[in-house]
């Protein structure tokens, strides 16, 4: 009996060690945000940030696993230890910094309106009077419309940006406010053919839109943040990041965190 | 634990008006879709048990279509799918279908009618053959027999199962939050998204439990009023 108990304890101890060694980093993302993260016809995760995340994990020698879920539940999931990091075009804002820690800047993320051509909508709030703006739940864009445009425009809130685009197309919303990057992808694929385009200049309000996007980790998980920060510089300096960027956009959104420290 | 309780209190006290507006949307969805669903369910059930194939085949197809596909898919097709056709956007129905509320009500009502249609069909089949024969023996016409004997009896038999359907319908209304309606679930989710915690969802859950209790209680009253003879 004693040997059995000892044996069991040894097994438990051994598996415990094995666990600690190949600990999997679960990265949460919301795969309805093409071209950053989306599912292809076969249901596999694809996109700019999926490639980037895999490159970062390789550079940091981490074993990573993707977890796909709604954007607005990413931070609660992180703090509930369901995932260990978030790479999902999440803007680094003061609000979010109260709940999570961020790595250095991964990409820049200018926000911009998209509306039907000739709608007269611009970034000027005066042009948005009485309009309905489609935004995604839990995003900085939702915050901008509900706070900065309170009493001027109405926010119509969607679970995914894909749905927001659909309703702009269907004419239920006058415009959408989102990252100019994913709007570019949508405009190229469907929007332009249906007469949509950017409306007005990109919005600059660091208090709301923060300072680009980063990878979120749990508060105090400095080891993981540091590992990602180092990996960012590695993929930034060896050309991997630029190569991924150019495969998706004709412009450069590589963030400051990927530049070599001076 | 005390953190969670304090958070819950905070979520409830500060956001009470939000939750009340969410509750109002949920109640509208539940009451209207259940009412329309029940009214449609009777002809669906009658057509299902009809010996005439022109009636029973389409009714069976209808029941299988709505019971065989997820409600989420139905609501997405009605809300996001239909307007993809220019004909729908140009039709007289567009001002109605443009809003999420009629779209959600349409999906929930049709769904409800398909499910409760089956429940009522079960009730009709469970009406004792002797009562039917007695009605026929006194020369009652079919329509009158249906109205006076079969349907009242079938509905009474189906009452407990109907109460279950209404409770399920209450929870099904939470899918309205996927088409931009800010119902109870929508409020809970929005708050959770804003605070990065789950307190808003806890409060929403507590309200759902209270509503379920009220629905169950209401049906118990109906049962003791109309179906007391069925008690052992």
Automatic annotation (TrEMBL), chain A:
This protein's UniProt keywords: Signal
Q: Check the UniProt entry and state the signal peptide residues, or none.
A: 1-20
Superkingdom of source: Bacteria
Q: Where is the Solute-binding protein family 3/N-terminal domain?
A: 24-252
Which Pfam families did the record assign? SBP_bac_3
Q: Which PANTHER family match?
A: ARGININE-BINDING EXTRACELLULAR PROTEIN ARTP, MEMBRANE-BOUND LYTIC MUREIN TRANSGLYCOSYLASE F
Q: What is this protein called?
A: Amino acid ABC transporter substrate-binding protein
Native species: Lichenibacterium ramalinae
TrEMBL record, chain B:
Q: Which residues form the ABC transmembrane type-1 domain?
A: 23-220
Q: Which Gene3D superfamilies match?
A: MetI-like
The transmembrane segments are 23-49, 61-82, 201-222
Q: Source organism's superkingdom?
A: Bacteria
- Tell me what topology the record assigns in the membrane: Multi-pass membrane protein
Q: Which UniProt keywords apply?
A: Cell inner membrane, Cell membrane, Membrane, Transmembrane, Transmembrane helix, Transport
Q: What PANTHER family does its record include?
A: ARGININE ABC TRANSPORTER PERMEASE PROTEIN ARTM, MEMBRANE COMPONENT OF AMINO ACID ABC TRANSPORTER
The name this protein carries in UniProt is ABC transporter permease
Q: Which organism is it from?
A: Lichenibacterium ramalinae
Taxonomic placement: Bacteria, Pseudomonadati, Pseudomonadota, Alphaproteobacteria, Hyphomicrobiales
